[in-house]
Specification:
The protein is mainly α and about 725 residues long. Among the domains are: about 210 residues, Peroxidase, domain 2, CATH 1.10.420.10; about 130 residues, Peroxidase, domain 1; about 140 residues, Peroxidase, domain 2, CATH 1.10.420. Helix content is about 40%, strand content about 5%. It contains 27 helices and seven strands. It has a three-stranded antiparallel β-sheet with strand order 5-6-7. A two-stranded antiparallel ribbon has the order 1-2. It has a two-stranded antiparallel sheet with strand order 3-4. A hairpin with a 5-residue loop joins strand 3 and strand 4. Helix 10 packs across helix 15, helix 19 crosses helix 20 and helix 23 crosses helix 27. The radius of gyration is 28 Å and the shape is globular. The relative contact order is 0.09.
Length: about 725
């Protein structure tokens, strides 16, 4: 097979991840509206169809205990549980579990069978029900089928039709391996950014313990590190583990049965199925660990919590050759209630525990939660219901995206709630009036543009968090982020708040302007003013209707991961000494940010060039502002970057900062960073720079910049969709 460009030149900047943002890759076409289709579903009918599948064992893949519920819970959990807060990627949205690499992860062994069991349900309901929604809904139905009362369910997850190749899973090149490079100074409990799973190819942590050893302290550290990166606190962590392990069993009764290759490596005649083996010989083989957690594997009860706390547990090698835990004495092993056989050809089964289970008992904080749950079963039920709901919906964004009759009325803090407007939004006349007020203030084009960008560019399309709506830039933690230049930001916000107060106080009607709207409007006015300075008459589209969030309804801790360590759009280099994660070079980080902003390659290119023209750089630095007229929306950035009258020279050891010199005189004309020079260095980016830097390219540059700017300003306006 011919090598790709990336294989020929491993250091080549990967831009292909942005191509997914430029086109609709699905089969339904650009006019397809999944939310509209989902609303046509009879959800009760869908749930009944899932229930029928779940309780009708198939000969080609038998059901443990005659019920596929535990398998469906594992499928839903492993779909949603990949989510991590640091970049908002992975999770249930997109139904990515059915695509590589997740489809063939060792931790997802035999989940291909779970999805294939649900194929008739998907086939029946077609485009009205995405795989992404079906997978997690099946988990909810499974819990309800086995006696648990769930907190609710929301649909609205579109299906992906291509793997998300922007997700970094770690440095290892083999599955089920853990490299010290995955962690900081400690080998456990301190993952590098943006990782959450501690083992390549596993959803969370190694169930046998760190590096496959029954290390309880290390296992507890990994659990806490991992679940914190899923935005779960200690109570939610214990509730999820205990609630999930109340059901089903793990499979590994034999260490000699040959298991076939994973789906992506299986022969074509397997038709997408993998891990084939003779389960009638030795039972199903998945993790290599064998046994249930309690004697009632398809019933909601306190069996898991009671077994874990009421017995002492010791490690031993199970029949599959893996570390697992059994009651410590022969007397306890005889006394513990046995589970019925999972399959007709088996016998009764003694409950076991994983290292990760026993680790909860040996961590003081986790133990306190467990003991509280044991004494208060109702608290356990509620905690698991809420944590499970959060697990399944954490990557869906604001509540207005939630669809269906089972959406709870309550809004949770982790949903970044916004207040409803109790006033009428501004209209065209008020927009024009406010633009004039903003431009007549002492605020500069650069200040207005930077503030609007800082507010809107927090958006992440991965989990639909952030954005301008709510004006959280005026709240902690955003108002203190270094990249937002807190002192200058205070000045800008103070001026805009004064304009807002005067405008709202002068109205005799119900029309009011939110600060969120005014920040965006100020940025738009700055762009229009800068375009006029360059001789172009443009109007940046503006849609009012944003509201202002409150500090009390802002989860400061969960917003911290949205802080940019670098920002190529504002030419903010950050502190390179802190960059020990897996996002690569500065230009890689620029592309990563563009991907989270749902930008295409040309949109990223024109935004960088336009921000430089506006002088919207961190600290008002001249770096990258390749023009003598900052604040004028000209194409000078591209013209001067490509001008062969200049030469380029690095001025620091890291190759982050450069001087652009006149070839003839040697005089330094400009300063720049890698964020700037990549648009002349990379062949594909240079191709776009050629277009925008041409003598006849400025008009297109301005038009494209306005379109891309407007897109970023409204990325979080789900109320307009």
């Amino acid at each position: 097979m011919p090598w790709s460009n990336q294989e020929w030149w491993p250091n080549l900047l990967r831009l292909d991840v942005l191509d997914d943002n430029a086109a609709d890759l699905g089969p339904y076409g650009e006019d397809f509206d999944y939310a509209e289709e989902f609303e046509k579903l009879d959800l009760e009918e869908v749930k009944a169809d899932i229930e029928e599948v779940m309780t009708t064992p198939q000969e080609w893949w038998p059901a443990d205990y005659g019920h596929y519920g535990p398998l469906f819970i594992r499928m839903a959990w492993h779909s949603a549980g990949t989510y991590r807060t640091l970049d908002g990627r992975a999770g249930a949205s997109g139904g990515l579990q059915r695509l590589p690499p997740e489809s063939s992860w060792p931790d997802n062994v035999n989940l291909d069978k779970a999805r294939r069991l649900l194929q008739p349900v998907k086939q029946k309901h077609g485009r009205r029900l995405s795989w992404a929604d079906l997978i997690v809904l099946a988990g909810n139905v499974a819990l309800e089928s086995m006696g648990f009362e769930t907190f609710g369910f929301a649909g609205g997850r579109d299906d992906a039709f291509k793997s998300n190749e922007a997700t970094e899973w770690g440095p290892e090149t083999e599955f089920e391996t853990t490299s010290p490079e995955r962690f900081h100074d400690e080998e456990v409990g301190d993952l590098k950014d943006p990782l959450a799973n501690t083992v390549m190819g596993l959803i969370y942590v190694n169930p046998e313990g760190p590096y496959g050893e029954p290390d309880l302290e290390g296992s507890a550290k990994n659990i806490r590190n991992e679940f914190e990166r899923m935005a779960m606190d200690d109570e939610e962590t214990v509730a999820l583990i205990a609630g999930g392990h109340t059901f089903g069993k793990v499979h590994g009764a034999d260490d000699e049965t040959e298991v076939g290759p994973e789906p992506e490596a299986a022969p074509i005649e397997e038709q997408g199925l993998g891990w084939q083996h003779d389960f009638e010989k030795a039972g199903m083989i998945t993790s290599g660990i064998e046994g249930p957690w309690n004697d009632t594997p398809i019933q909601w009860d306190m069996g898991y919590v009671d077994n874990l706390l009421d017995y002492e547990w010791e490690p031993h090698k199970g029949p599959g050759g893996a570390w697992q835990w059994q009651p410590a004495s022969e007397e306890e092993r005889e006394a513990i209630e046995k589970a019925p056989p999972a399959q007709a050809f088996g016998g009764s089964e003694q409950p076991m525990m994983l290292t990760t289970d026993v680790a909860l008992k040996h961590d003081e904080d986790y133990l306190e939660v467990l003991e509280h749950f044991q004494e208060n079963p109702g608290a356990f039920q509620e905690a698991f219901a809420r944590a499970w709901y959060k697990l399944l919906h954490r990557d869906m964004g604001p509540p207005e995206r939630y669809l269906g009759p089972e959406v709870p009325d309550e809004e949770m803090l982790w949903q970044d709630p916004l207040p409803d407007a109790d006033y009428e939004p501004i209209g065209e006349a008020e927009v024009a009036e406010l633009k004039t007020e903003v431009l007549d203030s002492e605020l500069t084009v650069s200040q207005l543009a930077k503030t609007a960008w800082a507010s809107a560019s927090t958006y992440r399309d991965s989990d639909k968090r952030g954005g301008a709506n709510g004006a959280r830039i005026r709240l902690e933690p955003q108002r203190s982020w270094e990249v937002n230049e807190p002192e200058e930001l205070e000045t800008v916000l103070g001026t805009l708040e004064g304009i807002q107060e005067e405008f709202n106080g002068s109205r005799s009607d119900d029309v009011r302007v939110s600060l969120a709207d005014l920040i965006v409007l100020g940025g738009n006015a700055a762009v229009e003013e800068a375009a006029a300075e360059a001789g172009h008459d443009v109007e940046v589209p503006f849609e009012p209707g944003r509201t202002d969030a409150t500090q009390e309804r802002t989860d400061v801790e969960s917003f911290e991961p949205l802080e940019p360590k670098v920002d190529g759009f504002r030419n903010y280099l950050g502190d390179s000494d802190e960059f020990d994660d897996f996002n690569g070079t500065h230009e890689d980080r620029l592309v990563d940010k563009a991907h989270l902003l749902n930008l295409s390659v040309p949109e990223m290119t024109v935004l960088v060039g336009g921000m430089r023209a506006l002088g919207a750089t961190y600290g008002d630095s001249d770096r990258g502002v390749l023009t003598d007229e900052p604040g004028t929306l000209s194409n000078d950035f591209f013209v001067n970057l490509l001008d062969m009258d200049y030469e380029w020279e690095a001025v620091d050891e890291d190759g982050e900062r450069f001087e652009i010199r006149d070839r003839e005189t040697g005089d330094v004309e400009w300063e720049a960073t890698r964020f700037d020079l990549i648009f002349g260095s990379n062949a594909r980016l240079r191709a776009y720079a050629d277009v925008y830097g041409a003598d006849d390219g400025e008009e297109k540059f301005v038009e494209d910049f306005v379109d891309a700017w407007s897109k970023v300003m409204r990325l979080d306006r789900f109320d307009l969709e």
